[in-house]
Amino acid sequence: MKRPIIFITNDDGYQAKGIHVLIEEMRKIGTVVAIAPRVGQSGMSHAITFKDPLRVRTLETAPDFSFYECSGTPVDCVKMGLDKFFKTLKPDLLVSGINHGSNASICSIYSGTVGAAREGAINGIPSIAFSLTDAHHDADFEPYRSHIQTIACAMIEQNSLNTNVFLNVNFPKVDSIGELQEIRICRQTKGVWIEEFDKRTDPQNIDYFWLTGHFDNYEPEVPDSDEYLLKQKHTTVVPLKIESTDMEALGVLQEMIATTSGK
Amino acid sequence: MKRPIIFITNDDGYQAKGIHVLIEEMRKIGTVVAIAPRVGQSGMSHAITFKDPLRVRTLETAPDFSFYECSGTPVDCVKMGLDKFFKTLKPDLLVSGINHGSNASICSIYSGTVGAAREGAINGIPSIAFSLTDAHHDADFEPYRSHIQTIACAMIEQNSLNTNVFLNVNFPKVDSIGELQEIRICRQTKGVWIEEFDKRTDPQNIDYFWLTGHFDNYEPEVPDSDEYLLKQKHTTVVPLKIESTDMEALGVLQEMIATTSGK
């Protein structure tokens, strides 16, 4: 079998430790093209840049590996890579991460790491977002190498998953590899981040605010949800879909508008 | 019945024409609190700002109307407003827009206008994103006032829609109100933006790239999809949901991982 072509990006920037671990693992499997943001892009979700121009710089090129940095968002990196290298032949896999910090539950909506994987799926590429529930810049990614291999290989070999589905993978923080439990397929925990702005005053006596908050887990005891399983030290895999029309709401909405229009 | 409290934001910034039309319409219905970005935030999707502080400035305050600008993204504006004004009492409605430019089909993923409405829904607030398929800064919003009223009032009065569902409303560009057809409930058209980077060279002889592209509509003739109906000059209303786990994929994925792990 010919070696697969794997497209790598992240949201923590090309210098982050997580993407270098992911590059090492993917080079064991295939030919790697990596394009990562110039600077950290955490919380950039599915943002794109079209009112400012983008810059790209080559970091490294070898026969089976090339690495670039781009001035834009994670989704810009995906779009740039697809345009630059994959006009005729799509990559066999897109992987994003490994993010320094959890992207479980509702965090998948805010995450640039997940945004990049979603953009891969929109373009019909099997795509995976990898994140570790440890935001430290020097987090230990060693325990997860085998799980990364399993999930990436499964995604390359499969042909039964709908092309519009991509994977949101989270690793629990563990102190040793012995503590890590097996991979579990599950659904996204329902919950919300409750915002708490931290108000401060600058030297010019003008207020400014830091966005902080805490996570309100609506279902802390539901065993097939990702937050719960991460607490049990499982690696979690949530299949996410792009399509977001709520087909069940169509009828209710029809009625609502008809009633109000008729008044 | 007590007058509803309506939270308004947008992604084109507080000076855009679209938000001022929306403010006028909502003030006919209720008490309005508006918090909009300081500058244009098109394409910011569901991005949040937590590595830089945010600033807020009061633009206007009256008994039934207050207006602020915030240095962050549309979702930051929603979070800021919820924290600042709605800690104990939630607004009855959140409306975002009117966006200068279409947010139909897959654009709903990239849109800051839609991101703000999604954030409202995440917080359990009935939420609507309004967009006009005309990106001109001086676009004519007059023909759509009656449809805005119908949809906003329907959303305030209803109690049967799941709280995790929000509305993505798009108005067709029309030359006169007579050309505008009735409101249609429909689903999001399937399609993809094909990126085409426009490469240029700056005076320092360094390349830079503008993100451009064209929309590839996978189903141009499907009559219950938003792109099709907009071409027929209908106002389109698509119910979108927050939950994006693909429950059908869980079994397939279980099998995939088990097979690969067993090798």
In words, what does this structure look like?
Two copies of one chain form a homodimer. In chain A, the strands form two sheets. Chain A has a nine-stranded mixed β-sheet with strand order 3-4-2-1-5-6-7-11-8. A two-stranded antiparallel ribbon of chain A has the order 9-10. The model of chain A has no long low-confidence stretch (mean pLDDT 95). Helices cover 27% and strands 31% of the residues of chain A. In chain A, α1 (17-27) links the parallel β1 and β2 (31-37). In chain A, α1 packs across α5 and α2 (74-85) packs parallel to α4 (112-122). By secondary structure, chain A is α/β, with parallel strands linked by helices. Chain A has one domain (5-189, 220-244): Survival protein SurE-like phosphatase/nucleotidase (Stationary-phase Survival Protein Sure Homolog, Chain: A, 3-Layer(aba) Sandwich), CATH 3.40.1210. Chain A has helices at 17-27, 74-85, 107-110, 112-122, 145-157, 226-231, 249-261, and strands at residues 5-9, 31-37, 56-62, 65-70, 93-100, 127-132, 165-171, 181-185, 191-201, 207-217, 234-241. Chain A is globular. At the A-B interface, α2, α3, α4, α5 and β8 of A face α2, α3, α4, α5 and β8 of B.
